[in-house]
Automatic annotation (TrEMBL):
Name of the protein in its database record: DRC2 protein
Organism ancestry: Eukaryota, Metazoa, Chordata, Craniata, Vertebrata
Sorted UniProt keywords: Coiled coil
Residue ranges of coiled coil: 68-95
Length: 107
């Protein structure tokens, strides 16, 4: 039920581009895409692959979910980098203000 609710939320939050193009561009080379198509056309033989065929409908959801998680992690890393930079700038500002205060005390 939670996954279905998340899928519904994802559908509501889709951009126009995602609604028109419901797939993500592949980063694979042409020959890699051909190999992948060939493998996907073969009937599955392993039990896990057979079981996963029941969940093909959720593939788009998991793509979007994973994309959102990756973006979330990237934002966390960017936020941490900005916090470090902010701390460094605050330190420099304190050093500068301390230098200005010393220069004002000297006649």
């Amino acid at each position: 039920q939670r996954i279905l609710r998340l899928a519904e939320m994802c559908r509501r939050l889709e951009t126009e581009e995602e609604k028109v193009l419901p797939f993500y561009p592949s980063s694979l080379a042409e020959w890699e895409q051909q190999n992948a198509r060939r493998v996907l056309e073969e009937p599955p033989t392993e039990p896990l692959a057979l079981a996963l065929q029941d969940y093909v409908g959720l593939e788009q959801f998991w793509k979007r979910f994973n994309k959102a998680k990756l973006e979330e992690k990237a934002l966390e890393q960017a936020r941490a980098a900005l916090a470090d930079r902010n701390q460094n700038l605050r330190g420099l500002l304190q050093q500068y203000l301390a230098g200005v205060a010393i220069n004002q005390k000297m006649p």
